[in-house]
Design a protein that fits this description.
The complex is a heterodimer of chains A (about 180) and B (about 375).
Chain A (H helix, E strand, L loop, with lengths): L1 E2 L8 E4 L2 E11 L7 E8 L5 E7 L3 E4 L3 E11 L2 E5 L6 E5 H4 L11 E7 L2 E6 L3 E9 L12 E6 L4 E5 L7 E5 L5 E3 L1
Antiparallel strand pairs in A: 1-6, 2-3, 2-6, 3-4, 4-5, 7-8, 7-10, 8-9, 10-11, 12-13, 12-15, 13-14, 15-16
Chain B lengths: L3 E6 L6 H16 L4 E6 L2 H7 L9 E4 L2 E5 L5 H5 L6 E5 L6 H8 L4 E5 L7 H5 L3 E2 L6 E5 L18 H14 L7 E5 L7 H10 L3 E6 L1 H8 L8 E6 L4 H10 L2 E5 L2 H9 L3 E4 L8 H13 L5 H14 L12 H4 L2 H18 L2 H14 L5
Parallel strand pairs in B: 1-2, 1-5, 2-4, 5-6, 6-8, 9-10, 9-12, 10-11, 12-13
Antiparallel strand pairs in B: 3-4, 7-8
The chains are: A mainly beta (about 180), B alpha/beta (about 375).
Chain lengths: ~180, ~375
C-alpha cells in the first residue's frame, strides 16, 4: 500500500476489481493536514478516463509492473515509439496512456517502460529531466531578480514558469512530479 | 433517504472543529426536522465548552434534537448491531473509527468527506469528485468555499438596523461598557498587538474591547493598555449563537481559524482574520486566496490594497515582524462595513452549504450514476 500523495503519472493502483493507470496527479495542500490528491485515471479494463480524489494520506493498493529500459525513438502522431537497445524491438504507447508524462519525453532519452501482462502501458520518468526552452519572452531590463518568474514553453511542449533571467535555448532542470523549474 | 444522518468529528485543537460541526448538525436538523442527526466525536469536552448542557461524562446524550455519541461507544459489538444510515459525513476530513468505517464501506451509503473552508480556486476542481472506494459505499469530496462552484458556507443571516442596535446595547451592558464608543472583539492566536493599540490611541475615540481565549489574552494583557479611552474585558467563552450575534454588532472583529472566520464573513462587519499557522508560512496562500475573493466587493481599490497588505502582514509568522499601521481601517470602518455587507449578501444568496449538500445527497439517491 502506498499513500495517495506518492502517486505519479504512470503508476497503477487497484480499486475493487479495477486497475487504474494514473495519467495526471495533482497535489493540493489543505488546511492543517487535510491535503488532497486529484488523480486523472484510465481504467485499464474498459478504457474509461475519470478523475478521482483522495486524501493525501489515504492508502492505495499500488500494482507493481514489469519494466524494460528502452529508448524513446520518435513520435508518430499520437504514438510514441520506444526501442529496446539490445534487441531493437520497438513498442508503441499512445499519448492517451502516457498522460502528462509525454510532456517530459525527449528523443533518445532512455527510460523505463512499464508493462502489464507483457503489454506496455506506461513509462516511469526520473524525478527530474533537463529540457531546452523553446520559447519565452525576453527579460525586462532592471527586473532580473531570481524570484520573478515568467512563462516558458519547453522543447517537449511543457509550459511552466522559469526565472526571468532564462532565455530561449537554455537547458533547465524540471521536476517531473510538479512540472516546476528546479534550476539551470 | 435522509431519515438519519451520522456526522463524525475529530476535535484536533481548540473549539473550531466542535463549533463548525455543531453548527452543521444544527443546520441539518433545522432543514430536516424529522430526521435523526447523530454526532460522533472523540472529545465531548470541546462541545461542552460551547454548549454547557452537554455533559462530557455521558457517552450518549441528546441536545436540541441532536444525539451526541462519544467515540468510545463505537465498539465492535455496538457497530455489529448498528444500522449505517444513508448519509455519513466526515467533518473536516476526519478519520472515522475503523470498526464503523469498515461496516459503512460495505453498506449502501453515501460518505461525504466534508473538508475545510478555503477560498483557493483548486477546491472547485475537487468539489463533488468521487473518491473511489472499490466497495459498496460511494464517497465524495465536498469543499466549502466562497464561490457558486464550491460547497459554500453554513449560512447565517444579517441583522436589521433595529436588531443590531438592540443587541449592541445588550452586549455593552453584559460586558460592563456603559459609555458607548467603538466596540471591538478579539479572538486570535498569539500576536503582537502593540501597533494596533498605538493606532487606537491615535484615533482617540473611546474604545471597548472584548477579548476571548487564552492566546489573545496572553498577547494583550502584557501590553497594559487599559486606560482612559480604552476598556478591555477578558471574557470567558460565550454560547456560540451569542458570539455570532456579537460579531454582527461590533465595529471591528479579530477572528481566527475557520469557525469564527466563516461567521465573520457572514456578519457584514469589518474583520481581521488570523489564519491557522501552517508550516513554511503556508497560511499566507490561504489568506491571499481569500483576499482575492474579497477584492470584487471592494469598490475603493486603494483601500483594498491597504487591507490586503495589512492582512498578509498580520498573518506572516516570520519572527520579529511588526504589524503595519491599521489607521486606514479604523478611520474607514463604515466603508469596510458597506463592502462586507455586499460580500455577505453574495454568500447568503449563492453559497448555502446545507442546501448544496442536501441537493447533492438527494440527487445521489435518485441516480447513483453521477460520474
Amino acid at each position: 500500500m502506498k499513500e495517495a500523495s506518492e502517486f505519479r503519472a504512470g503508476n497503477i493502483f487497484k480499486v475493487g476489481n479495477d486497475l487504474l493507470l494514473v495519467l495526471k496527479a495533482e497535489y493540493n495542500k489543505g488546511a492543517r493536514s487535510a491535503s488532497t490528491m486529484k488523480l486523472k485515471t484510465k481504467n485499464l479494463a474498459v478504457g474509461s478516463i475519470a478523475e478521482t480524489v483522495y486524501r493525501a494520506t489515504d492508502k492505495l493498493d499500488e500494482i507493481r509492473l514489469d519494466r524494460r529500459k528502452m529508448q524513446f525513438s520518435y513520435r508518430n502522431g499520437d504514438s510514441f515509439v520506444f526501442m529496446d537497445q539490445e534487441t531493437y524491438e520497438q513498442l508503441e504507447l499512445t499519448e492517451e496512456y502516457l498522460g502528462d508524462n509525454a510532456l517530459y519525453l525527449k528523443e533518445e532519452e532512455v527510460i523505463d517502460v512499464l508493462l502489464y501482462n507483457e503489454k506496455p502501458i506506461s513509462i516511469e520518468l526520473p524525478q527530474q529531466v533537463e529540457l531546452a526552452i523553446e520559447y519565452t519572452e525576453p527579460a525586462v531590463q532592471g527586473n532580473t531578480g531570481g524570484k520573478v518568474l515568467k512563462e516558458a514553453k519547453m522543447q517537449t511542449g511543457l509550459i511552466t514558469n522559469v526565472p526571468i533571467f532564462c532565455h530561449i535555448g537554455d537547458v533547465v532542470k524540471i521536476d517531473t512530479r510538479t512540472g516546476e523549474y528546479m534550476g539551470r | 433517504m435522509l431519515s438519519r444522518i451520522d456526522i463524525f468529528c475529530d476535535v484536533i485543537d481548540n473549539f473550531g472543529d466542535a463549533g463548525v460541526t455543531y453548527m452543521l448538525a444544527e443546520a441539518l436538523k433545522s432543514e430536516l426536522p424529522g430526521s435523526e442527526i447523530r454526532l460522533f466525536t472523540n472529545d465531548l469536552n470541546a462541545f461542552s465548552a460551547l454548549k454547557s448542557r452537554i455533559d462530557p461524562s455521558k457517552t450518549v446524550q441528546e441536545l436540541n434534537g441532536i444525539e451526541f455519541f462519544s467515540y468510545s461507544v463505537l465498539t465492535e459489538g455496538f457497530v455489529k448491531g448498528y444500522e449505517i444510515p444513508k448519509l455519513v459525513i466526515e467533518a473536516f476530513a476526519c478519520q472515522i473509527p475503523a470498526a464503523y468505517y469498515e461496516k459503512a464501506l460495505d453498506s449502501d451509503c453515501l460518505i461525504i468527506n466534508l473538508d475545510h473552508l478555503s477560498a483557493e480556486l483548486w477546491i472547485e476542481g475537487v468539489h463533488l469528485k468521487e473518491s473511489l472506494t472499490g466497495r459498496k459505499a460511494r464517497k465524495y469530496f465536498f469543499m466549502p468555499g466562497f464561490t457558486t462552484a464550491s460547497g459554500g458556507l453554513i449560512q447565517d443571516r444579517l441583522l436589521s438596523g433595529e436588531e443590531k442596535s438592540e443587541k449592541r446595547k445588550y452586549f455593552e451592558s453584559r460586558f460592563g461598557f456603559s459609555d458607548g464608543g467603538l466596540l471591538i472583539s478579539i479572538f486570535t492566536y498569539e500576536h503582537d498587538f502593540a501597533r494596533f493599540f498605538n493606532d487606537i490611541r491615535t484615533v482617540g475615540k473611546k474604545t471597548n474591547i472584548i477579548v476571548f481565549g487564552e492566546k489573545s489574552r496572553n498577547s494583550i494583557e502584557k501590553l497594559h493598555v487599559n486606560g482612559a479611552n480604552i476598556s478591555i474585558v477578558y471574557a470567558d467563552f460565550i454560547p456560540q449563537e451569542d458570539y455570532d450575534d456579537l460579531l454582527k454588532v461590533c465595529d471591528l472583529n479579530f477572528v481566527r481559524g475557520e469557525d469564527s472566520w466563516s461567521r465573520a464573513c457572514l456578519s457584514g462587519k469589518p474583520f481581521i482574520w488570523h489564519s491557522y499557522h501552517q508550516k513554511d508560512n503556508y497560511q499566507q496562500v490561504k489568506v491571499k486566496a481569500f483576499l482575492e475573493y474579497q477584492k470584487e466587493h471592494y469598490v475603493d481599490k486603494k483601500l483594498f490594497e491597504q487591507y490586503f497588505d495589512y492582512l498578509m502582514n498580520f498573518n506572516d509568522r516570520t519572527p520579529g515582524l511588526s504589524d503595519k499601521p491599521v489607521l486606514f481601517m479604523l478611520e474607514n470602518l463604515e466603508t469596510f462595513e458597506k463592502y462586507n455587507i455586499k460580500s455577505a449578501e453574495h454568500l447568503i444568496k449563492n453559497c448555502n452549504l446545507i442546501k448544496k449538500l442536501l441537493f447533492f445527497a438527494r440527487s445521489f439517491d435518485k441516480d447513483k450514476k453521477l460520474i
